[in-house]
């Protein structure tokens, strides 16, 4: 699991069937102190949890596909939780 900040929205008029209803965001990976690390990436939000400005936990690789109810989607990263605060 990785920590990120939603910094933008990806708009697409055509998507594959498995993610047709899913929101897509640009997420900036951050450290626990809030510093930017790595480069931003496009992340799926299969449970429609996030909005711009939210801190989120996201997963990558096979875990990203498993975040969907169907158990499969052709994505590399998915949001799985919102972060209220970091202590």
Can you characterise this structure?
With 87 residues, the chain is mainly beta. The chain has a single domain (2-82), classed as Beta Barrel (OB fold (Dihydrolipoamide Acetyltransferase, E2P)), CATH 2.40.50. It contains 1 helix and 5 strands. The protein is globular. The mean pLDDT is 94.
Write the layout of secondary structure elements.
Layout: E1 2-10, E2 23-29, E3 41-45, E4 55-60, H1 62-66, E5 77-82
Antiparallel strand pairs: 1-2, 1-4, 2-3, 4-5
Strand content: 35-45%
- Poorly predicted ranges: none
CATH class: Mainly Beta
Biggest sheet, in brief?
5 strands, antiparallel
State the helical fraction.
Answer: under 10%
Q: Structural class, from helix and strand content?
A: mainly beta
Overall number of strands: 5
Q: What's the multimeric state? A: single chain
Number of helices: 1
The overall pLDDT average reads 94
What is the annotated CATH architecture?
Beta Barrel
Name the shape in a single word.
globular
Order of helices and strands: EEEEHE
What's the name of the CATH homologous superfamily? EutN/Ccml
Number of domains: 1
Describe what is shown at a glance.
The protein is built from 1 helix and 5 strands; from the N terminus they run ββββαβ.
